[in-house]
Amino acid sequence: MRVRMTLEEKRLVWVSHHLSLQKKENVTAEYFGIHPKGLVPTLVHDGVVHIESNDIIEYLDKTFTEPPLTPADPAALIEMQHWLKIATNHHVDTIKTYIYAKKMAGKLRKSVAEQAQYVALQKDPELLAFHRKVSSDEGLTDADVAAAEGRLRGFFSRAEVNLANCPWLVGDQFTLADIAWVPVHFTLLGAQFPFNEFPRVSAWAVAIRERQSFREGVLRWCPQF
Q1: What's the pLDDT at 103?
Q2: Tell me, what CATH number does 145's domain have?
Q3: How far apart are CA 170 and CA 76, in angstroms?
Q4: What pLDDT does residue 198 have?
Q5: Within the chain, how many helices (H) and strands (E) appear?
Q6: Is 224 inside a domain boundary?
Q7: Over the stretch 168-207, which tens digit does the pLDDT of each residue have?
Q8: Could you give the CA distance from residue 95 to residue 90 in angstroms, rounded to a whole number?
Q9: Strand, helix or coil for residue 5
């Protein structure tokens, strides 16, 4: 969603190659040969492979400079980088954990053979531990989910403060920070996260839904999560 939105904001021509995670189409030797963690998305541009969504959108903004999605102001740039960093650093232990527990429980569970194939291909210890846990009989614990929800509440509380005096996460300019976090909002909303407690965040998300990049980059591919 982040990469599609950025491509649309830049008005670039691009081709999608969709992989179904439910069908485990990303858990193949061929795809792990492209992305060493077997995650989506992957961008191939001019024959060069780029992985990790936040790295990709930063690459796109540096390569295709109009319209700019990175603030020129140094303080705003630091704040934007903060939002990108926490989205990356807390993807598995927070965002992924909450969504799996509240929405995906059982839907993406691997069979014994699928788990063995995944373990043989996956080398990242954090992802191995996560998928080992969600594939176990115990699954994610109440403590795991409570900790994830607590961190999310902290992130959105900070966003609520930021949005008190400006329309976007880091000021008056729509930036990569907004692109990084609106898909998180979209998926968490589908997982019944209590956004009614964060009215400014909810209004921010409604405003982004009006952008063509959201309609084409998110809703066209996933009308409802």
Answers
A1: 87
A2: 1.20.1050.10
A3: 6
A4: 98
A5: 11, 2
A6: no
A7: 999 999 999 999 999 999 999 999 999 999 999 999 999 9
A8: 7
A9: helix
Task: Give the tokens for residue 46.
Answer: 């001019």
Residue 73, phi then psi, degrees to nearest 5: -65, 125
φ, ψ at 48 (rounded to 5°)? -110, 135
Domain count, the chain: 1
Distance from C-alpha of 94 to C-alpha of 72, rounded to nearest angstrom: 30
Average pLDDT, the chain: 94
DSSP string, 59-71: HHHHHS-SS--S-
Are 97 and 145 a contacting pair, CB within 8 Å?
A: yes
pLDDT above 90 (res 51): yes
Where would I find the beta strands (DSSP E) of the chain?
A: 42-45, 48-51
Beta bridge partners of 104: none
Three-class DSSP category at 34: coil
d(CA 89, CA 55): 13
d(CA 78, CA 7): 23
How many CB atoms neighbour CB 171 within 10 A? 18
- Which residue is associated with the tokens 């992924």? 96
User: Does residue 35 lie within any of the structural domains?
Assistant: yes
